[in-house]
From TrEMBL:
<dbReference type="Pfam" id="PF07521">
    <property type="entry name" value="RMMBL"/>
</dbReference>
<dbReference type="InterPro" id="IPR050698">
    <property type="entry name" value="MBL"/>
</dbReference>
<dbReference type="InterPro" id="IPR022712">
    <property type="entry name" value="Beta_Casp"/>
</dbReference>
<feature type="domain" description="Metallo-beta-lactamase">
    <location>
        <begin position="13"/>
        <end position="233"/>
    </location>
</feature>
<dbReference type="InterPro" id="IPR036866">
    <property type="entry name" value="RibonucZ/Hydroxyglut_hydro"/>
</dbReference>
<protein>
    <submittedName>
        <fullName>Putative ribonuclease</fullName>
    </submittedName>
</protein>
<dbReference type="Pfam" id="PF00753">
    <property type="entry name" value="Lactamase_B"/>
</dbReference>
<dbReference type="GO" id="GO:0016787">
    <property type="term" value="F:hydrolase activity"/>
</dbReference>
<dbReference type="InterPro" id="IPR001279">
    <property type="entry name" value="Metallo-B-lactamas"/>
</dbReference>
<dbReference type="Pfam" id="PF10996">
    <property type="entry name" value="Beta-Casp"/>
</dbReference>
<dbReference type="GO" id="GO:0004521">
    <property type="term" value="F:RNA endonuclease activity"/>
</dbReference>
<feature type="domain" description="Beta-Casp">
    <location>
        <begin position="255"/>
        <end position="380"/>
    </location>
</feature>
<keyword id="KW-0378">Hydrolase</keyword>
<dbReference type="InterPro" id="IPR011108">
    <property type="entry name" value="RMMBL"/>
</dbReference>
């Protein structure tokens, strides 16, 4: 048995890990899109490092685009096997992939106009809306905590990873030549104090583990609650400076946490009477979907539901669906809060809002999740004084902030707690994926101190034998 790492290797995006069994069967763990990698992004998303038509099964950890975003291209390029995931992941993936396909088509139209002007040949999108829809028939739903057989000698178990609705850690029990071994892939690990979701589940002893390491060298700020931090930014930006507070947020996870926190402020009668715009049709659809899975919520929000039938809605909240309504927000002079996708500010309507408001010092842009360093959000958080948006240079005069308390990824204490159910001496090899290399090196030393004997940080396309 071999494993190869074709994405999220020494970086936090493009999750793709390929298991090849001794009988030649191939199991792909995630088929994620690279995001926010600058000029390299498109090329990275066009090169697999393997032949899609030779993959027998795809096991999907969750629906974030950096984990599922290349499924339509995988199918277009020859994959025709089943895609196993939880029910919520299937629902989320379909709406996210439809949105992603529309972005691919729109982006290519824009790029091709520039290429035509300079005499360059047209390029094709990674995939189209038709390609995305063609992949949906391959999805097969599997509930948490049930071992299920996908092939002779291969069983899979999903356990709740607590990252977003439907997210799972993937466990494969593989029997070859009479010997059984377990391979665990963490997917993205959530937080043990998440305000909405249940904590990650414990899982059976593994022989080999692939674990994400996004925040493997840091701790989240737990001294101030998210509602208090949001209130501070609203008061400073909207009440004191009379400006706009723009919050780039991933449609799944962070958007719901922001809405929930603002609802909490209203219940406590502390929410300022302003207009709060959720400017993302995808985020609106995702929020409605999340509401359909209350069983995945933690005990705190279960209790809130007893007295508040919609913990994601509050006075002043306005849904913006059409492009025309979104454009009108640029002409508003009144203070307001705009929540819009995408979370790294690399695409979507929020990029237009940033472009139109970044040079006004009354305004603020508040990042609420992880941003790949080369993404627009990453460059803003890094303190760049000028940024290019849609090919135009903008001076950064708006205040830039970041709420680390809102990350959907666990910090190093959460990651260590996730691994606490394991006997480190029984783990033959532990691979660090989905993290920046300098962070992973620090996390590796921490894990060695915890007793793990063999910790590896694979490069992209690196392949290694497991047994």
């Amino acid at each position: 048995m071999k494993i190869a790492f074709h994405g999220a290797a020494r970086t936090v995006t493009g999750s793709k890990h390929l298991l090849t069994l001794k009988n030649g069967k191939k199991i792909l763990l995630d088929s994620g899109m690279f995001q926010g990698m600058g000029r390299e992004t498109d090329a990275l998303n066009r090169i697999w490092g393997f032949e899609p038509s030779e993959v027998n099964y795809l096991v999907l950890s969750h629906a974030h685009i950096d984990h599922c975003g290349l499924i339509p291209k995988l199918v277009k390029d020859g994959f025709n096997g089943p895609i196993f995931c939880t029910p919520a992941t299937r629902e989320l993936a379909t709406i996210l992939l439809e949105d992603s396909a529309e972005i691919q088509e729109d982006d290519v139209k824009y790029v091709n106009k520039k290429r035509a002007a300079s005499g360059q040949p047209y390029i094709k999108p990674l995939y189209t809306l038709d390609d995305a829809k063609a992949s949906f028939g391959l999805f097969q739903e599997v509930e948490y905590n049930n071992w299920f057989k996908i092939d002779e000698g291969v069983e899979v178990l999903f356990t709740d990873a607590g990252h977003i609705i439907g997210s799972a850690a993937v466990h494969l029990r593989i029997t070859e030549n009479g010997k059984t071994e377990q391979v665990t892939f963490s997917g993205d690990v959530g937080r043990y104090r998440d305000v909405i979701l249940r904590s990650p589940d414990v899982f059976p002893q593994a022989d080999y583990i692939l674990i994400e390491s996004t925040y493997g060298n840091s701790l989240h700020d737990l001294q101030t609650t998210t509602p208090d931090q949001l209130l501070g930014w609203i008061e400073k930006t909207c009440l004191q400076k009379r400006g706009k507070l723009i919050i780039p947020a991933f449609s799944v996870g962070r958007t719901q946490e922001i809405l929930y926190s603002l609802n909490q402020l209203e219940l406590e009668r502390r929410l300022p009477p302003l207009d709060y715009f959720l400017d993302s049709p995808l985020s609106i659809r995702a929020t409605e979907l999340v509401k359909r899975y209350p069983a995945y919520f933690n005990k705190t929000i279960q209790k809130v539901l007893q007295s508040d039938d919609d913990p994601f809605k509050f006075a002043g909240l306005r849904y913006i669906r059409s492009v025309e309504e979104s454009k009108l927000l640029n002409f508003r002079n009144e203070p307001c809060v705009i929540i819009s996708a995408s979370g790294m500010a690399e695409a979507g309507r929020v990029k237009h809002h940033i472009s139109n408001n970044i040079e006004n010092s009354r305004n603020a842009i508040l990042m609420v999740g992880y941003c790949e360093p080369n993404s627009l959000g990453g460059r803003l958080v890094a303190g760049k004084k000028e940024v290019s948006i849609f090919g135009i240079e903008h001076e950064v005069h708006a205040e830039i902030g970041s709420l680390r308390s809102m990350s959907a990824h666990g910090d190093y204490e959460d990651l260590c707690q996730f691994l606490a159910s394991q006997d480190p001496r029984a783990v033959k090899k532990l691979f660090l994926v989905h993290g920046e290399y300098d962070v992973q090196q620090q996390f590796k030393q921490r894990l060695i101190q915890k007793g793990f004997l063999d910790v590896d940080i694979p490069e992209r396309h690196y392949e290694v034998g497991l047994a």
